[in-house]
């Protein structure tokens, strides 16, 4: 850089200041990339939120517009020369859109990039920035050529764009059957609808179309191509740089998720202390009887550390959507993502393994030798690392939480079944013994048991001539030479590598789950199928009839008017504060609270359509959330009154509707069912019963027609970005769900975002019709067209920082707004036919304030408009004479029984249409039953049991089948409940139902599906294993299994309801599994449990389950004698004396087993009603 400066001085060159600054900045080492990043962030307006978390559906982060700009910035910050950008303006104000497209225009012109952008509602000034236009309809290109020729093309077809009509809006509407006729300019000729095919034919024969065809038909001369067109690598960085970048990102995510990792480590430490005191060495002797307890403690440690890896599956699945996007855009290869995910988890595995081993090893009383302690630690460290690797691998192939949960449990089941403890290798069928060598748990068990039982203290010789340690290993089928320890270590390392290679391969080859479905009308389907290239006569008649109805009924909403009370909402000096983010404090911001709204005063009146506008991040959604009572955190100050009375949230929810910016709906419900469900629960009981009559009542039909959803009423909503409705259709469904509640006050947060000009016009016509019925309607809105903007009556304009700068009428052709701002000294005049909303945002931007030296908020506070608004607020804050405060005899519109029926109806539909949840868990149980039946073939038959090992084996079977069926139910229900929880939060805020009605409905919905699972078990596994075919024993087993699967299911629901996300829920659930495992009576029999932990044994559901299973099957076998530890005992006596399972406890056990599902279900309902983890 010094040499460049020297030569410039010698040549007398004065560099451009901007170029000089840029060159000096990038010449500094390490600043070249950050300079590019900072520049793009500045262009995108993201510099003000650079240190704020992005957020998700449960945690409020940056605004919707900022998220959209972040997506755009993520793409253009790289060296790409070809950009394909879909609907980049969604959620952005017109001023910001203009700035972004201006940047794209410069990129295209200066760097010769190819940029194709699809826009829904571009403002005229944004439209003018483009060079070429591609216009499409019905999957065909109607026009492709220069922007300057497109209007003349349509004029040649007989259509002309009127004044004060944006060119982009005209181009979209001229192709619509409903809107085309108004642009017909040949008044002397009869108008006939011009189809997309006819436009295409006219374009092909036009000069522009022929020129385009000629260019396409001419072969491209490769030698004339730019050198940048030839790329030698699909990635922009070297392999080392890619790896370093992925390492840095993964490390940052680990720091941000430190709470989860710390929680897991503390959980392991707590469980280690519990386990150590259960197997306390003062209670353990070095003999054959206590050797079983040592063996159980070693097995338990392995199981616990494997179960501790379950949360890794949820964390891996949650990261996959972002990974797939970045992989498909060639940010990095899959291996560069997989390697850091593995390596950075190794220290965590080591810390957690040390935490477990250092606490439990000496408490339990394993061999006190340093070398054996380290070997013990090494095995546990490797099995824990292998567990994390296995669950990541499962996540990469299953891809969703529901499928991943089942896949994870299935993988764990296979590993455990062939692990050699539940069923020892000698007891396995000969043709399945090979499975023992394919389970990592087998090698870990060989390593741990050999490390312990080949120690010097186990070298006592028995009467059979072998050492005590060898005798114990022989009984378990684990009698291998000492060098097998190192073979086991090598095998475990091999499994770790195998799982991680499988993880990388899965990330490489698997495509993202699902794609968005395009939903077309029946008319277009008929046309596409070629059944009638014009439109069928019936369809034509139907459409003409519909148009006639619309023309004869200008106010369609007039037919759907139901009784309501017009209400005004007024608010004075509203302030809103949140805790200052840690990132801002680190940068020197000293205030503890960050103020997002500053003394907002205003009012919204009945019959007046009000627009709430401002640049992205100005606080529009924040203000709506505060007024609607949707904020769950922060401090709100100020007075909010409804009809002159102080707002009470419970009653306000009954008379208001809120169309949120994010469209949250149940994915497995159809459009019509979603609207009917809302009407069922939100219309008051006073409405005529015919209106609420199911299936779809007249009122619901009218709402669907008003919002133009009637043609897709039977389409499933689906999951955004994966399947179901498009963005436009979801937005209209959100509006319909709120309109059907017949509210007096409606808040709509960006109702036209994501819609094209025609769809936005449809929505706004519906909104205007609703306003004309006397309702109070408030909309936040971005980049409206002139037509849409001037459909509003009142405007509240906010600037960044949460301050009002205008609150008053628009006037005819926006004259009031224009007069107000043009009266401010220095504000440039609006150009002819310029969009007033765009001009307004441009002249009030932060940069313009600095340029003019004006604070628009202070100008507004000093204006007569502010005084008039303040007077209006004071007047509306006084209740009118003869009115009463809002009051309803009941908290909810419907009685509890109606709420329960509606919720149950919806849950029934959701469950039936969720095969990924219900079918998969039923298939899992079927496969598990067959696997256990084959492995334990007839081993439950009392005649096949001859020693204590036979009883241990069948108890292991009971324990394994129950535990894994239960864990699978628990794991699979958690993601299903989690998806519905965000929908439940929206519906609860709306006051649709009591949380208890919702929770009882979900609890009740599980019962028939559990019954199906029980029937499968009883008619597959029960006979294969060889349990007794006696009526009493059969029904005891059926009842117990039914209760067990239910309490595991309700446990999963409860875990989701008491935790903020599914990752934390998985951690708590895994802790429950491990305690259940320890206190079930299988690993440690009840007589061996220390007195101070007996309460945990009796409060463990699994101990009661195994008690019933074992006593009903074997507790009455007094005649059957077997060899147990060198003496002869009856089976019944051994069950009673060794395991502590007693027949006289059966009646109590029956009651307790029924109580556990009730207890967990009640906790689920209580948590749903009292806890809210949505951060807004």
From TrEMBL:
Keywords, A to Z?
ATP-binding, Membrane, Nucleotide-binding, Repeat, Transmembrane, Transmembrane helix, Transport
| Membrane topology of the entry | Multi-pass membrane protein
Primary localization class, coarse: membrane
What the entry lists under Pfam families is as follows:
ABC2_membrane (PF01061), ABC2_membrane_7 (PF19055), ABC_tran (PF00005), PDR_assoc (PF08370)
Domain ABC transporter span(s) in chain numbering? 569-825
| Bias-annotated ranges (Basic and acidic residues) | 533-548
Q: Where is this region: Disordered?
A: 533-556
> What Gene3D superfamilies does this protein map onto?
P-loop containing nucleotide triphosphate hydrolases
Alphabetized GO MF terms:
ABC-type transporter activity; ATP binding; ATP hydrolysis activity
Q: Which GO terms describe its cellular component?
A: plasma membrane
Q: Where in the cell is it found?
A: Membrane
Q: Which residues cross the membrane?
A: 258-279, 291-310, 331-350, 370-391, 403-423, 483-507, 919-938, 950-977, 998-1022, 1034-1052, 1064-1084, 1145-1166
- Name the protein family: Belongs to the ABC transporter superfamily. ABCG family. PDR (TC 3.A.1.205) subfamily.
Q: What does this protein do?
A: May be a general defense protein.
What is the name of this protein? Answer: ABC transporter domain-containing protein
What broad taxonomic lineage does this protein's source fall under? Eukaryota, Viridiplantae, Streptophyta, Embryophyta, Tracheophyta
